[in-house]
User: Which sequence fits this backbone?
């Protein structure tokens, strides 16, 4: 690794697939718990609840295993690299979530919830640049934004990370 690197985080899709395998296994733990409670519990569970639970958790576990297999068959690496001059995030298969910016151009980190005519949107995590642009940092690969912020502060101590969610951001209306 380059000696200029201040922070480096990487995770492969194969590593990420473990989470899906774990969730699939947990579906079977729930099925087992429902079965045991229906057999030995103090109150009888409604048959419709038991049947729907068995089907829902079984189907969910199959979907999760398919996702895990896809991750193994389509290898890629997520990376976040910080040097004294650049912050580079490489999100596999997404130019929108990948970026390469100068550390000197970072204004702050923030949690952002867009507002629209329908109300609050989904909370996004990312960095705001001095020119006002926002770069979303996806949490799909378990990048800890607080850790990244602390690493950036080693280079630029003045970069802030307010703990409150910015709700003043408005997305422009987009017609379908």
Assistant:
């Amino acid at each position: 690794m380059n000696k200029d690197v201040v922070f480096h985080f990487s995770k492969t899709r194969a590593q990420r697939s473990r989470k899906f395998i774990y969730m699939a296994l947990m579906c079977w733990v729930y099925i087992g718990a429902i079965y045991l409670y229906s057999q030995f519990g103090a109150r009888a569970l409604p048959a419709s609840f038991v049947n729907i639970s068995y089907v829902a958790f079984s189907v969910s576990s199959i979907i999760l295993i398919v996702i895990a297999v896809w991750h193994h068959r389509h290898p890629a690496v997520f990376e976040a690299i910080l040097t004294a001059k650049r912050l580079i995030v490489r999100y596999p298969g997404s130019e929108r979530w990948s970026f390469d910016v100068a550390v000197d151009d970072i204004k702050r980190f923030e949690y952002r919830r867009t507002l629209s005519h329908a109300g609050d949107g989904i909370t996004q995590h990312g960095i705001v640049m001095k020119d006002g642009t926002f770069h979303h940092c996806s949490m799909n690969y378990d990048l800890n934004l607080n850790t990244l912020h602390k690493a950036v502060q080693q280079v630029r101590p003045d970069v802030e990370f307010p703990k409150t969610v910015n709700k003043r951001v408005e997305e422009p209306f987009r017609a379908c």
Observations:
- The longest strand covers residues 106-116.
- Residues 13-40 form the longest helix (28 residues).
- The chain has three helices and eight strands.
